[in-house]
Amino acid sequence: MTLPACLGIWVVGGFPVTGQPPVGSVYQRSAPAPAETAPAPAGDPLATSPTSPTPFPPAPQSAAPESVAEQAGRAERVVAAALAGLSRAPSLSARVRHLVRFNDMVLKGSGRYVQSGVGEDQRYRYEYRLSATDEEFEVLDVCDGIFAWNFRRIGQNPPQVERIDVRRIRERLDTLGISHRQDQSAYLGGIQRHLGLLRQYFHFASITPAAIDELPVWRIEGTWDRDTLAWIVKEKAEAIKSEAGVAPNELPDGMPYSVRLSISKRELFPVRVEWLAVPGRRPTPPAPLQVIAMMELYDVRIGEPVDVSAFVYKPATEGLSDITDGYLPQVQPLRQ
Prior knowledge:
Blueprint: H1 5-11, E1 54-55, H2 68-88, E2 91-102, E3 105-116, E4 123-131, E5 136-143, E6 147-154, E7 160-165, H3 166-175, H4 190-201, E8 202-212, E9 215-224, H5 226-232, H6 237-241, E10 258-264, E11 270-277, E12 290-302, E13 320-322, H7 324-327
Helix pairs in contact: 2-4
């Protein structure tokens, strides 16, 4: 049993896909209790997945309605502010929860993210495991300031260890005129890279107030940049770029159609990412979008001391490869 490659891009892969597509305050929150859900059909794996945030009451009718462009602009600004705050936090630790659905398989996992320092002094460690009935998937993403390491053990396959030379990435950023090195982790790995690519590959067009376990959040919906989606799903590139586009059920199983971010209102911290699609073996008839994967950050602690030994990584040489040369051309300016 293996995860589909397209879903692995977003959930399992520590580094981005191969090739290059077109171009606070301290707060703590306990692990959220599962929200009550409507009964799901017997055998439906989504019966175990978290529900969407509960919307707040609508704004008073006297408020002037936002235009589509105004709402999209506000959604983009909130996402940008959340990512900027994440990169500039003096320290950060959070527990991470994952849930993935593919066909009749449900993978659940947990892990931890730790980050310390800003700018060129920033280090991070992101590790988690996903498990199903008979297999396990393990990922470790760590930057020690010299190399950015990525370890992957996918099922019964031999483990893989890849590394990127951080100094050469900095030189590449300088060449591109990206002098604000406080954001360098977004070009390396970890959660910052993960979320940075979401903003790069998706356009966010709607923002509504909501709540997750009484935590006020902004719920922000995004859809694919068409050129990027056409580059990934090459066999449907012509249809994707057409005026009509493609329907959710026309994408490969496991390929998300849209993404939903939940960002805390007070700290502008990303607390949940949900990927939505029409699940099921292809071909499949049109159907409502469902959550096929979820990543949640909780028990978040900002500005508290962290154990620097978390950023020490000395892997065995077996299976180790340096991918810096191949990775450098992929380093392009992210949207600001």
